[in-house]
Amino acid sequence: MHSVKGPSDVAEIRRANLALTLQTLDELAPCSRTDLRHATGLVSGSVSSLVDELVARGLVVEPGQTTSNGRGRPRRVLGLNPLRVVGVAVQLTPLEVIAEVRDLGGELRWQVRQPHGIRHGVSDDLVAALVDAALQAEAAAAQIAGAWVCGTVVGVPGPVASGRVLADSIEFGTPRTDLFEPLRERLPAGRDLVVMNDGRLGAVAEYSAIPPRERPRSMAYLTGGKGVSGGLIVAGMPHLGAHLMAGECGHISVAMDGPPCDCGARGCLTLYLGTDALFAATDLTTLAADRGQDVALVRLEERLAAGDADARTALDRAGRALASAIGTMSNYTDIDLVVLGGALPRLERWLLAPVTELLDARQERIPEFNPVVASARRGDGATLIGAWLLARQRLMADPSRVPLLGG
Ligand SMILES: [Zn+2]
């Protein structure tokens, strides 16, 4: 046990208090130093010194530095300066790569969407597409006057082990591919870099879309595309597990003697609920390949509405698989809320009967144990918003990374 605080302990405590002050100010702003003192429990002198440092780093503005909004006298308050920091978010989808630059306030400052032309099974194409988009966004971010670039968060479909390696990708047919190192080598030194499964990022975005007073303690996000992915929120934070793989709900096995899956198991949820599986069961695979997922999904909805037997059978099977996975997730994690995203909300009418049946049956036993099942609020933009939120969370956790103004 250490009884005396060494210089590194003191620096560490100062860094933690700086983060606490900024996070509290972010929640309360506009607020005064007194408000911060009450909310943080720090003593007055500390709060003043910490606020001074945040001002010196350009993260916080004081009266006189803000432009008046024209309503009455300016109040002696502190506010976050959303223009001081920008973050880069990159998303790879089956068809295109999207890169964005957003400031601390969430304002979109720059965006590019481009088809990536990744050839099936070619890892180099995949890496090159990500590096190219990230470098374009970094260059655009560096041009924004007065803004410091905090880092880049990349969301990709498929499991990303330990935040580095994209495992065998169903979407791109690539073998295990290191995404982290090639990006780290090419991006400017010192930038924060995160590579993560798109479902994990979507979970962060969906959780933040719930009004603060209504936010549950824990939430599972389940998003349907070619494959099924998702993420887990525990105590308000993403729960990532030992290798950043927690929340990989598409590979919950729902049939122990089901077909083999690329992950090595059998009967995974994605083999029933993923759009690849739904299209294969309804002869829409060729249409999806030729004209895209959306066109094929519209055709599938038309068939379902018309009572097509193959389509109804496929959706009923998918619904039972979904119910099985939700039951497993609930039993193992005791989540309050399950959010369905991606293509799932538009298929809910034909998907949810087995889920409702399961929840009704469980309701008779331990009613408080049942999670609420709801549709996603953010929709298609969830991955990019989640990437920005993660970059922001990491910045707020250590604002001492931001250089002093004029320094
Ligand atoms: Zn699997």
Quick gist of this model?
This protein has 14 helices and 15 strands. The protein has helices spanning 7-28, 33-40, 44-56, 123-142, 180-186, 198-209, 270-273, 275-281, 285-291, 293-305, 309-333, 344-351, 353-363, 382-397, and strands at 60-61, 79-80, 85-92, 96-103, 108-115, 148-156, 160-161, 165-166, 177-178, 192-197, 218-224, 228-234, 237-238, 337-342, 372-375. Zinc ion (ZN) binds at residues 251, 261, 263, 265, 268.
Structural commentary:
By secondary structure, the chain is an alpha/beta fold. It folds into 3 domains: 7-80, Arc Repressor Mutant, subunit A; 85-201 and 384-401, ATPase, nucleotide binding domain (Nucleotidyltransferase, domain 5, 2-Layer Sandwich), CATH 3.30.420.40; 213-376, Nucleotidyltransferase, domain 5 (2-Layer Sandwich). Helices cover 43% and strands 18% of the residues. The chain is built from 14 helices and 15 strands. The chain has a 5-stranded mixed sheet with strand order 5-4-3-6-10, with helices on both faces. A 5-stranded mixed sheet has the order 13-12-11-14-15, covered by helices on one side. Strand 4 and strand 5 (108-115) form a beta hairpin. Helix 2 (33-40) packs across helix 3, helix 9 (285-291) crosses helix 10 (293-305) and helix 11 packs parallel to helix 13 (353-363). The two termini are 38 Å apart. The mean pLDDT is 91. The structure holds zinc ion. Zinc ion (ZN) binds next to loops.
